[in-house]
Design a protein that fits this description.
The protein is built from one helix and 43 strands. With 542 residues, the protein is an all-beta fold. The chain is elongated and about 95 Å long.
């Protein structure tokens, strides 16, 4: 795969928005029937209470969660039980159990009580760790029932023991479409829903044949000049709350297995290193196995559908998805939650310009928001990518703020000649005037009547091509002296007077009078200089 290079536009960088949902399964739990070599993972404890089965983990008659009866089919449970899961984690001392951020212990305290290492021939573990490594609590124990080849838990209530079974949470999966073998770009921003994940051949990140040229896996660090850290050069594990960049030449399935993050809010501290070219950019990731939100409702950048650029977005973040956010200084953080926040009114008031390619997918997006709030700079993944952005004095932006009383310049850059479309989405605004003006062609589109505008563009076109007008200050066209542009194989010239066309050797190859808008043609491809009424313009004819 190719090395990633992030480019800076002016002082800042801006990202784009495209929805790229990963494949996310429902929550599935399978009964533990044998003691595994490694107990690390997420479990449900299902108690047998007469004819019913309930989920819980306390030592009283009040079964936690008030579920019941639990529907079990073929030793499998499917449903939403995340709030009642217990997580088995481990360190050098052994295993211990957590629910949420609380360690389960025999005395009800918050300190961890470590398991001894499980073996099938003895009692498997305890809520506390004695000097000999085995201690059986009088109320709770975990053991293997060899006669029934199942793993059981007992709980003492009112001097009687009740029996429960363990069900282990099954892995989540994310489908990765291959980029092929022709140096194509097809990247994903990914995140892990388990607390720690080590890339391996088993979970699909690495290749069985060991060919490192077939995949890319990067972490991001804005404090370094070389922001992308290559897994192939220096191995690392995937951590909760962080995002990563991944690609594979083949179609693969990434498998996330282990101790799943609970659904409690997760706060991620943002890095900011003054003086770095990408200072403040942080690649974070949804820590949950379900859709997440940022509590402050901020804008972020996600990967577009083509996997070759970023697009500005807000709102929900898919499970196993990474996104870019931007800190403006030190000491800042973001918090993930599974509850959609109630957005501020000004956050909802916006005009979004979606840039769409021939495949009808969103390539990029520029957003104008009204009211107070932060902006979001422009960030691009690769050199000469197709992009739409809003220039301002202090840089190029994907998201800006406006009072709705002044026209806004909208820049566009094409990576190749082709037909593009800009479509508009308005949210929370009541407007009676919204026009998109193409400075190259003079076309003025009323976006309240026609919500999209299609045009032909090439790499040689001026980037300062469009104006988004709110109708208060008017618009004066061709302020940059542009009077000609290429449309397919034709050259369109606007103006009045004698047009002269010169080749790169300074020889005049054409002379023609124009009146209004006319189509002219040159005999061959190349670079030509067009002169009209004292104005000069260079065009690369393709």
């Amino acid at each position: 795969m190719k090395k990633v290079a992030l480019l800076i536009a002016a002082t800042f960088l801006l990202l784009t928005l495209a929805i790229l949902p990963g494949k996310v399964k429902g929550q599935i739990y399978k009964k533990v029937t044998t003691a595994p070599d490694d107990w690390y993972g997420t479990y449900l404890i299902v108690w047998e209470n007469g004819a019913e089965s309930r989920i819980g983990a306390n030592n009283s008659g009040n079964f936690l969660g008030a579920y019941g009866p639990v529907v079990i089919s073929n030793n499998t449970i499917e449903g939403s039980y995340s709030s009642n899961e217990v997580v088995v984690v481990k360190n050098s001392s052994g295993y211990y159990i957590k629910r949420g951020n609380t360690y389960l212990s025999s005395n009800g305290g918050s300190n961890p009580r470590f398991y001894a290492k499980f073996t099938e021939s003895t009692v498997k573990a305890t809520w506390t760790l004695a000097t000999n490594g085995i201690f059986i609590d009088s109320y709770k124990q975990l053991k293997y029932d060899a006669s029934n080849t199942r793993f059981i838990t007992t709980m003492k209530t009112n001097s009687s023991f009740k029996t429960a079974l363990l069900y282990k949470r099954q892995p989540e999966e994310k489908e990765i479409l291959g980029a092929g073998t022709d140096n194509n770009d097809k990247y994903y921003l990914i995140a892990s829903p388990v607390t720690t994940l080590t890339p391996s051949m088993t979970n699909g990140f690495l290749r069985e044949d060991g060919d490192v040229d077939y995949y890319d896996l990067y972490s991001f660090d804005q404090s370094n000049d070389d922001e992308w850290r290559n897994y192939k050069m220096n191995n690392f594990s995937l951590e909760t709350g962080k995002g990563y960049l991944y690609a594979n030449k083949d179609d693969v399935t990434l498998v996330f297995d282990g101790a799943f993050h609970n659904h409690n809010n997760e706060t991620v501290n943002l890095a900011y290193t003054a003086g770095q070219k990408l200072a403040g950019w942080n690649l974070i990731g949804n820590p949950f196995d379900v859709t997440a939100y940022l509590t402050d409702g901020r804008d972020f950048l996600r990967m577009n559908a083509a996997g070759d650029g970023f697009i500005a977005s807000s709102g929900s973040i898919n499970a196993m998805e990474g996104v870019f956010v931007q800190a403006t200084g030190t000491g800042q953080s973001v918090t993930f939650t599974i509850t959609a926040p109630s957005s501020k009114d000004e956050q909802n008031e916006s005009v979004a310009l979606n840039l769409i390619g021939n495949d009808d997918n969103v390539i990029d997006r520029a957003i104008v928001r009204f009211g107070e709030g932060v902006t979001l700079s422009k960030l691009t993944l690769k050199e000469n990518s197709t992009k739409i952005y809003i220039p301002q004095e202090d840089g190029d932006f994907a998201v800006v703020r406006s009072n709705g009383k002044e026209n806004i310049p909208v820049n566009f850059k094409a990576s190749k000649i082709g037909r593009y479309t800009i479509s508009v989405e308005t949210e929370g605004v009541n407007m009676n005037y919204l026009h998109l003006i193409d400075r190259l062609t003079g076309k003025d589109t009323d976006l309240l009547i026609e919500n999209k505008y299609s045009f032909i563009a090439s790499q040689s076109d001026i980037e300062s091509r469009f104006i988004l007008s709110f109708g208060n200050n008017g618009y004066e066209s061709s302020t940059d002296g542009t009077f000609a542009y290429q449309n397919g194989s034709d050259i369109v010239v606007r103006g009045e007077g004698e047009l002269q066309v010169f080749d790169v050797m300074g020889r005049m190859v054409m002379q023609q009078c124009v009146n209004g808008e006319e189509i002219v043609s040159v005999q061959s491809q190349g670079v030509y200089v067009f002169r009209l009424n004292g104005k000069t313009q260079k065009i690369v004819v393709r």
